[in-house]
Amino acid sequence: MYLFITHKEKEKEKEKANPHATEAPMSAQQKRVMELKRSSLQLQNVHPNVLAKYLHRGVLYQDKDVVVINKPYGVPLRDDTGVMSIASVLPVLSKMMDGMKIKSDSQLFPCLGLEKEATGALLLARSEEAVEHICNMQRNNDVQRKYWVITVGVPVPSEGMIDIPIIEREVTGPQPHYKMALSPLFRMNDAGDGVTKVRSHREAHSAATKYRVLDSNSGCSLVELQPFTGVKHQVRVHMAFAVSCPILGDHKYSHWSKLAPQKLPERVLGKLGLEQSKTRYVPLHLHARQLIMPGASEAEINVSCPLPKYFTQTLKRLHLTLPDEKEDK
User: Fold this and answer.
1) Looking at the domain assignment, is residue 14 inside a domain?
2) Which of 23, 116, 119, 162 is buried most, with the most CB atoms less than 10 Å from its CB?
3) For residue 58, which of 133, 174, 50 has the smallest C-alpha distance?
């Protein structure tokens, strides 16, 4: 008796033996989306000890009073809902830094904040007295924090100071929500040929940010920001609403009236290898690049933090050059 097997049946047998063999290869865009997803979710759902070890490997500076670590993307500094945060693993991290001694009494305290979606140099104090001292220095503008961001658009002029107060406002509509917004002290006069000072809103916070364009290309820019005040979402609001150049991946402040993924120009989408429907996967490109402050002795503490991989990949795709690379050319 002969057994006849058709070509289709052979293919089915192959599929059963190796179900992944017939899957279509991923397109360049699918690979890019997977890449962005991985960079966003890297450390958000790991065991606390894994996060503590990662932070321990990323210690940028330490002395008897302070520690500076490299904060990863997507992990909040604090979280009251039970979600893992930097603060929740500090007891384990301080023990690791003390050589895992059983009777270790060393502690670490967060003192200067950094947003969940931001990366870079995060300052921790070794005592409550050090926290108080750092907060006093911050109030006196003795602590300099410089951020690097990639913006959608090119700020004009290429450097300057944004000094516009910020206030939290409710956005009404189909999806009511709250956002930080500009609360300027001046408005155009009725004649339209000048500005008139208006009474500042009592709930507005003074906010000042110095900015400098480091490079621009493909309709985007690498910008250095130095905030002189610490208002919530300050640099994001100033870039989006004061100079109309929102930070790449800022899905909250790229629109005022709605909650939606950032809309990017076709030229930028092409460079990033994405379609508009996939921009929700683009992470916020906001990196705490440098921290400068007086040390316990006469020596100044000056710490620079390397850029995360997704940030450097975006720079390459947009053909944006780092300052030190410009000098080498």
Assistant:
1) no
2) 119
3) 50
CATH code of the domain in which 252 resides: 3.30.2350.10
In a domain, 11, yes or no: no
CA–CA gap between residue 25 and residue 31 (Å, rounded): 10
| DSSP string over 259-322 | --PPP--HHHHHHHT--GGGGGGPPP-EEEEEEEEE-SSSSEEEEE-PPPHHHHHHHHHTT---
What's the number of domains the chain is made of?
1
How many CB atoms within 10 Å of residue 186? 11
Alpha helices by DSSP H, 106-204: 128-139
Tallying the residues shown for the chain, one arrives at 329
Contact 76, 116 (CB under 8 A): yes
Asked if pLDDT for residue 59 goes beyond 50, the answer is: yes
* Domain ranges, residue 212: 28-323
**150 beta partners:** 222
CA within 13 Å, CB half, 55: 36
The verdict on pTM exceeding 0.70 is yes
> Do the beta carbons of residue 155 and residue 215 sit within 8 Å?
no
